[in-house]
């Protein structure tokens, strides 16, 4: 069973990768205005665990995670991280998919990312 969970403790066969069902879905309104979300995860495995982030960004985006590693111990069971996603183009798109995976060398906890860029056309209040 994996050592890092976000909400509940499902039964997962030994040696399997657990796919965390937190899907980050967002519309990015502008390349100059990235979207940032905060998530908290709970370690339910070995007290001394360090998970490192691996990012597969959705097409046309830059994804940052902070911090890039989560270090749990006997007194730290919950940690918070942020995901920031920016568009690298100025065009409307459908949904593109990527992921953030936390890996400790034994377990892999994957968070799906779904992003759509939608740029709103500026309007002129003077027009009738």
Automatic annotation (TrEMBL):
It holds the Pfam family fn3_6. InterPro entries: Subtilisin-like_FN3. Residues 30-115 form the Subtilisin-like protease fibronectin type-III domain. Gene3D superfamilies: 2.60.40.2310. This is Subtilisin-like protease fibronectin type-III domain-containing protein. It comes from Malus domestica (Apple). The lineage of its organism: Eukaryota, Viridiplantae, Streptophyta, Embryophyta, Tracheophyta.
